[in-house]
Every structure is written in structure tokens, then in C-alpha cells.
Design a protein that fits this description.
With 296 residues, this protein is α+β, with helices and mostly antiparallel strands. The chain contains 10 helices and 9 strands.
């Protein structure tokens, strides 16, 4: 997939879309239930590409929010991969499922409570093994899962019963599919200007990306962190007063409200970036023309 993906691995998730107004009763499954769900997932994935049977499937009996999967270095999938690497024996065709013991999941697999309760819950999986087989299966998944990756009815029902949730749709997606879906959601939520920063952190973590257009906050992604310019009121007026001039009839009130809106937008951007596991630093800027130099 890219340089941050573990070698010869295919990363994806079983996406469970919940019925409106419902939530899961359980976030983690005991080992036996996790293993049963993993076996169903393995059968489904082999149905999309028969050679997937020859690869090792690693998953966990837990569900997560999209932002927990879309983080630099694919940290949740990498944790699965590293935990599975400790298992002895031949990995070909093996299914490994991590479940909870005394209500605790191993390693860093515990879902974050601040991201619980969303309408889309994801059970991550890692497929790996022979490089040639993985490449062929990966091509099929990237081409087809978005269009025809519906989970089997037995898999959806098992997940519904095990997690105590009402599942309306269950399907498989690659991480690239999930990223494309998130980009569309951010566009609908008015966050499209921030997506290139998130995308750079995910796909090219050592790259550099600037957001410094229009009325939006100034953000510079570099050195694997996002730096956001924190303007004084005067510096903000120097940079943004022209855009704010058309908001209301009272110039004093309009500038005050526009500045408050701008600060709220900064906090929103910071919250989104941090949810994706991207470190955020606010950089104080006393003058408009200092912003680029301070954030560089």
C-alpha cells in the first residue's frame, strides 16, 4: 500500500453500520467469540479472492471508530501485526484472533472510549504472507471490495449477537477505501480544506503540507506534527479582516464574532488532527507576515 505499511501485508476492516439510534453493548469479545468471528471473516475474504486462504489473517474481537484506524503508521494494524509475530509456527493460512481476558485486550488494542458510540464501527484485520500471493489478493481487494465487499449474512449476524448491536450493513473495506470514505465525509462536514493535511500524515508521514488559503486557519504539517498559527487579534485582523468585512452591519461586532468563529475553527481543526493521532502544536504569531516563518 505504501512505505508505512508492514511488509507484504494487506490492511482492512469489517465495517459494521449500526441502525440509527443504537449502540453496541460490548466493545470487546472473549477469546472464543473473537475466534468464531475471525473464522467467518476468513471465509468471507477467501470468497472475494480465493488465494486469501493461503495468507495469515490477524484480527481482534473488538470494534473501533474510523479515526482509530486512520492514524499515521496505521498504528492499530501494526499492533495486530506485531502481536501476531510472537505466535510460533507456520503462518500460511493461519487465523489469529485476539480476544479479551478478564475484559482486557492485549497490547494497545483497547478501543478508546472517547471515540465510542459512532454509527460505523470497524473490526480491523491484517492479511499477510507470501509476497506474490499478497500482491494479487491486494489488487483484487483494492479493485473490488468497495463495490462488492458485503459480508456474509452469517458473519453479520454473528457480529451483531456477539457485540450486542443492531447491524444494518456489514462490509469489508481496505484502508484506502476507508480513507476515501473519510475524505468524502469531511467534505460534507465542511472540513475538506483539512483533509490534505490528514492524508499527508497517513500516506506520506515525512512529507510537508501547508494549509494557508482563504479564511481558514494556517496549518503546516512537517516533521510528523501539525503546527497551527495562533494569531493575536491584531495579527488576525491584518490577515483576515478583508474576508470578515462582509459578515454584519456593525464592523466592531462583526470582527469580534468573526474572530471567535476563527478560534473555534482552529480548535475544530486541532481536535480532528489529534483524533487521527497527529500531534498538534499551536505557534503564537504577533504579526500576519510572521505566520509562514514561525510555522516553517
Amino acid at each position: 500500500m505504501n512505505d508505512t505499511t508492514p511488509d507484504l501485508q494487506l490492511l482492512g476492516a469489517l465495517a459494521l453500520e449500526l441502525a440509527p439510534g443504537t449502540h453496541a453493548e460490548r466493545e470487546a469479545l472473549p477469546q472464543a467469540d473473537a475466534g468464531a468471528l475471525a473464522q467467518r471473516m476468513a471465509q468471507d475474504l477467501a470468497g472475494f479472492a480465493s488465494e486469501a486462504d493461503a495468507l495469515q489473517l490477524v484480527t481482534v474481537g473488538a470494534h473501533y471508530d474510523v479515526v482509530e484506524l486512520l492514524r499515521p503508521g496505521w498504528s492499530l494494524h501494526r499492533e495486530l501485526d506485531q502481536l501476531a509475530a510472537r505466535a510460533p509456527g507456520d503462518a500460511s493460512g493461519r487465523v489469529i484472533a485476539f480476544g479479551a481476558h478478564d475484559d482486557k485486550l492485549p497490547g494497545a488494542l483497547t478501543p478508546q472510549p472517547e471515540h465510542a458510540g459512532g454509527p460505523l464501527r470497524l473490526v480491523p484485520f491484517v492479511l499477510g504472507g507470501d509476497g506474490a500471493i499478497a500482491a494479487r489478493v491486494g489488487d483484487v481487494f483494492e479493485r473490488d471490495l468497495m463495490e462488492r465487499g458485503m459480508a456474509g449474512a452469517a458473519t453479520a449476524l454473528l457480529a451483531q449477537d456477539a457485540f450486542g448491536m443492531r447491524v444494518e450493513h456489514a462490509r469489508y473495506l481496505t484502508l484506502h477505501d476507508l480513507a476515501a470514505m473519510m475524505a468524502l465525509q469531511y467534505e460534507h462536514a465542511g472540513l475538506a480544506p483539512l483533509w490534505p493535511v490528514v492524508e499527508a500524515a497517513l500516506l506520506e508521514p515525512d512529507a510537508e503540507e501547508w494549509l494557508e488559503s482563504g479564511p481558514e486557519p494556517v496549518v503546516h504539517y512537517a516533521d510528523r506534527e501539525a503546527r497551527i498559527a495562533l494569531f493575536t487579534p491584531q495579527a488576525w485582523r491584518e490577515r483576515y479582516a478583508a474576508q470578515a468585512a462582509h459578515e454584519t452591519t456593525s464592523e466592531c461586532d462583526k470582527l469580534e464574532r468573526a474572530f471567535e468563529h476563527f478560534q473555534a475553527r482552529q480548535r475544530q481543526f486541532a481536535a480532528v488532527l489529534e483524533a487521527h493521532g497527529i500531534p498538534v502544536t499551536f505557534v503564537h504569531c504577533d504579526k500576519d507576515n510572521d505566520a509562514h516563518a514561525e510555522l516553517a
